[in-house]
Write a structure and sequence with these properties.
By secondary structure, the protein is of the alpha+beta class. The chain is built from nine helices and four strands; from the N terminus they run βαβαββααααααα. Helix 1 runs parallel beside helix 3, helix 1 packs across helix 7 and helix 4 crosses helix 7. The longest helix is centred in the middle third of the chain and has 19 residues.
């Protein structure tokens, strides 16, 4: 089988889901090719449908295999490139792994008001708009979940489960949102240091530097 990995993504200051797949590949220490499909000019999804069965990005091509969806890509990478040859994306302990998985699944399917009001592209504007009350309420719920994980965190590493894992990857774009929109963290006192650690992670910083170099987009 051809082992070439190609990740198709949207613009780095727009596609938060693409960011997750990118971070997973980098965390696995895997060489890969990166191909950007501009979402702004692919309104009918024609270009995305050529490479993805869902017509969405991110989508990973691994030889003849095609894997859309960031969470599916994370799971695939951990199975196709297992430890110890490659870093694990999930905690080794069964209980912590279950916790990490439900946190990731919650991020994957929830927080719709936060996504709408604090859209990823708005994070790169000089002055993001005021988020809605519903979005701020969901942001509070998210911070509470992160605080709960941090309260149970082992004493090894600054991330949710010690080392940088899939749970941190899934929440990284949301952390960009919470930071850009200056969401209050007083009720989740451990989250500011955690969010700072995520934003300082080399792979996150590399994505964000590239995103900030693009023209900001109020709409797309």
């Amino acid at each position: 089988m051809d082992d070439t990995l190609v990740l198709y993504i949207g613009e780095k200051n727009i596609s938060s889901w693409s960011m997750r797949a990118y971070l997973a590949l980098v965390a696995k220490n895997l060489p890969f090719e990166e191909s950007t499909i501009e979402l702004r000019t692919d309104k009918d999804r024609e270009r995305r449908r050529r490479v993805s069965p869902t017509g969405r990005v991110p989508v990973l091509h691994h030889g003849a295999r095609v894997i859309p969806d960031s969470l599916a890509i994370i799971e695939y990478l951990d199975e196709a490139f297992p430890p110890p040859a490659h870093p694990a994306l999930w905690p080794s302990d069964a209980g912590r792994r279950a916790h990490a998985r439900w946190l990731a699944a919650t991020m994957h399917s929830g927080f719709t008001k936060l996504r709408e009001s604090m859209s990823f592209n708005l994070c790169f504007l000089p002055k993001p708009p005021q988020p809605t009350t519903e979005a701020l309420a969901e942001a509070g719920e998210m911070l509470s979940l992160l605080q709960g994980a941090l309260d149970r965190r082992p004493e090894t590493g600054p991330f949710l489960f010690g080392p940088f894992t899939a749970a941190d990857i899934m929440y990284a774009p949301a952390i960009v949102r919470l930071t850009a929109f200056r969401v209050p963290t007083a009720r989740a006192p451990k989250t500011p240091a955690y969010m700072e650690a995520v934003l300082a992670h080399p792979a996150v910083k590399r994505w964000m530097d590239a995103a900030r170099a693009l023209p900001p987009r109020e709409t797309y």
